[in-house]
Design goal:
heterotrimer, A alpha+beta, B alpha+beta, C alpha+beta, A: five-stranded antiparallel sheet, 5 helices, C: alpha+beta, 14 strands, globular
């Protein structure tokens, strides 16, 4: 695959200067958190993707697998978090194959930050990287410009304040796995209720030393839509049709039923 | 829109330059065997991309000697759009199709740089997205039969485009089931 | 954490400071008129940006004389306008000693809005009441007082989501009746049907618009008076 192309850049600039509105890219408004516990690390995210004031996706996946034991939660521009994470996933696989070693979180972190720094923040990916490798459980965050942080508990995205309020008030040293999961889910819920950019469900991923990472898709679903008051099914024929054409995808074979000759 | 073992995809027929209508016969839905692609946005990009996907789709068929599944096509669209991350095509694509192995409905949408929106219910794109979201969110219900799905998607599109100055001038709907595809031209307001 | 702060450019050119008197507090309203009733529904969420200021801040008001008003958009302007309207109703009583008719208040509101033509109330206004024949009436306004009597209207953040749905379900737009070979014509909706449509319109808007949610308050005008009903909405 060739690199990122700038072919349409000048044209788009011209179009923008002449008043053609730029379509809005979906951003994952987002609350994402990560938290370490005794023997592992857990990350969690909400599932709302927005395009301006409109909810584009009510149940999107913001937890990305980089390798079986390294996962990444993404906030910012939806396409960037997805693509940068897929690219890293493929590079990590190749690296693991060529070195014959388990992939390490610090390697992922370094590689991602160098990539993002190279693009000077134009790739709008804000990530929480977590995982377990032969050196133990690890938890980091990366900003779009390439800066990184280390922490026992982290939050990112438009709901990071709401989530951090929960983390700051309840986090303590030596959490158990269950306590960490509860804390992360509650932090995400805080974002879901109090931040308009976040909403719908809680996704979670738990990574423990010497165990396969476990992904909990829709770990909590506190926002299922209630039954509507009325069904809006229309009587057939409600829409006026001017013309119709049919494309048949199967050959209809006419078979005439034949009486069977049965010998006694 | 997804229904019970069926899907429907619909578009208006207007092509315009801002407020001036230019054509009332500009279809925005393209067929790639049994995969359907809706492409809204800048007309030049709609044509360029539809042809590029035609080429890539044919190359895949020749190399792999099999048909392309809708989810594969979706990933092709996504990576093609992201290739132009910093000089994007101005489009809003939608992919719809039935999986040839499982027969399961597949629909998804994208933003202009290829972020995929997998949905179980419906996907909208174009200048009337707000109106379409309002219509679809209230009219759609699960497991609609093909004929009921046709009414629902048609009413959603018709009423949405009537509240958008840049949409309208006719509409077409495809209803896709495992053994046939029905294409209908709708009667619409022409203002 | 900003590690590298860009140096502010040398103060060779003057810096212009500006005060923006307006903000957007989200929310959506909706009015429907029936044979013998008129209603205005509004969500109760009050927002700025990505924050919720209140989950219950009513914005549909009883202004007296069996009339209901809501002004959605910039909440401070909306409240100021509703206060001005209430004031007008009161002073009408002092001057004329009789109830104010809906069409008269409708014209009064136009004047209230237009007198601020060059510094407008940043709101979409809807008025509901019963006309001289006892039929439901909805009047809707743009920010500077252009108005129209209608059978239904949505206003505010999610107006573009709700309005086509209303066209379809209240005016029966685009609905063809195969039996008569004619398009369906509009008629008055029974109150129970109208409430159902209102609730579904708002629950749908809540699903797709981030500034809509928390609660739905409906004020229903009938000749018996004004009834207030509340329905919860999703809070995410």
């Amino acid at each position: 695959m060739p690199g990122l192309g700038f072919d349409n850049y000048k044209r788009n600039q011209y179009l923008a200067d002449h008043g053609v509105p730029m379509p809005t890219a979906t951003s994952t408004g987002t609350t994402i958190v990560g938290c370490r516990f005794n023997g592992g690390v857990v990350i969690a995210a909400d599932t709302r993707a927005t395009a301006g004031d409109i909810v584009a996706d009510k149940n999107c996946e913001k937890l990305h697998r980089i390798s079986p034991n390294i996962w990444c939660a993404g906030a910012g521009t939806a396409a960037d978090t997805e693509m940068v994470t897929q690219l890293e996933s493929s590079n990590v696989e190749l690296h693991a194959l060529s070195t014959g070693r388990q992939p390490r979180v610090v390697a992922v972190l370094t590689h991602l930050k160098q990539h993002l720094f190279k693009y000077q923040g134009h790739i709008g990916a804000y990530l929480i990287v977590a995982g377990v490798d032969p050196t133990g459980p690890k938890l980091f965050s990366i900003h779009a410009h390439g800066s990184t942080d280390v922490g026992f508990y982290l939050s990112l995205g438009s709901g990071s304040m709401a989530a951090m309020a929960v983390l700051e008030s309840r986090w303590k040293k030596d959490l158990t796995k269950e306590e960490a999961m509860q804390l992360c889910a509650d932090a995400i819920e805080s974002g879901i209720w109090n931040d308009l950019g976040s909403g719908s469900n809680v996704d979670m991923c738990v990574m423990e030393q010497d165990k396969p990472a476990k992904m909990y898709r829709n770990y909590r679903k506190p926002n299922e839509r209630a039954q509507k008051e009325k069904s809006y099914r229309f009587p057939r024929g409600t829409t006026a049709v001017l013309a119709q054409s049919v494309r048949s995808l199967v050959d209809v074979i006419e078979t005439t039923p034949q009486s069977m000759e049965v010998d006694a | 829109m997804a229904g019970k073992d069926c899907i429907a995809i619909a578009c208006d027929l207007r092509l315009g330059m801002q407020s001036v209508g230019v054509s009332s016969n500009f279809e925005k839905i393209f067929e790639y065997d049994s995969v359907y692609l809706g492409l809204t946005g800048l007309a030049t990009d709609v044509i360029t991309l539809s042809e590029e996907f035609r080429m890539k789709h044919n190359m895949y068929k020749m190399r792999e000697e099999r048909r392309m599944e809708p989810d594969t096509f979706a990933n092709l669209v996504s990576s093609s759009l992201y290739e132009k991350r910093f000089g994007p095509y101005f489009v809003g694509p939608i992919v719809a199709g039935l999986n040839s192995k499982t027969g399961k409905p597949f629909i998804c949408g994208f933003d202009l740089i290829g972020a995929i929106d997998f949905a179980k219910d419906f996907i909208v794109a174009g200048t009337a997205t707000d109106q379409l979201y309002g219509m679809c969110e209230s009219l759609w219900e699960p497991d609609l039969e093909p004929e009921d799905l046709f009414e629902t998607i048609s009413q959603a599109l018709l009423n949405a485009q009537d509240r958008d100055a840049l949409s309208g001038w006719g509409a077409v709907v495809y209803i896709i089931t495992k053994d046939k595809v029905v294409k209908r031209l709708l009667k619409t307001r022409q203002d | 954490m900003e590690i590298l702060e860009a140096q502010s450019t040398a103060s060779s050119q003057p810096i212009e400071h500006r005060f923006n008197p307006y903000s957007d507090n989200g929310g959506t309203i909706l009015g429907i008129a029936g044979e013998d009733y008129a209603l205005i529904a509004g969500d109760t969420r009050h927002t700025t940006g990505y924050s919720i200021n209140s989950r219950y801040e009513p914005k549909v008001f009883d202004v007296g004389d069996n009339l209901v008003v809501s002004a959605n958009g910039f909440a401070a302007d909306g409240n100021a306008l509703v206060d001005a309207i209430k004031n007008r109703v009161e002073w009408y009583h002092h001057a004329h000693n009789k109830p104010l008719k809906v069409q008269s208040l409708a014209r009064q509101i136009q004047h209230l809005l237009y007198r601020k033509r060059f510094f407008p109330y940043y709101v979409h206004t809807i008025l509901a009441g019963l006309d001289d024949e006892g039929k439901g009436a909805i009047y809707s306004y743009d920010p500077v007082g252009s108005y129209e009597r209608e059978q239904c209207r949505a206003g505010g953040a999610a107006a573009s989501l709700i309005m086509p749905f209303l066209d379809n379900q209240v005016y029966f737009k685009n609905q063809f009746d195969p039996a008569t070979q004619q398009y369906r014509v509009r008629s008055y909706l029974p109150i129970d049907d109208a409430i159902k449509i209102v609730r579904d319109a708002f629950s749908s808007a809540t699903e797709r618009h981030i500034h809509v949610g928390d609660g739905l308050e409906v004020l229903i005008v009938t000749k018996a008076g004004i009834e207030k009903r509340y329905f919860p909405l999703k809070r995410d």
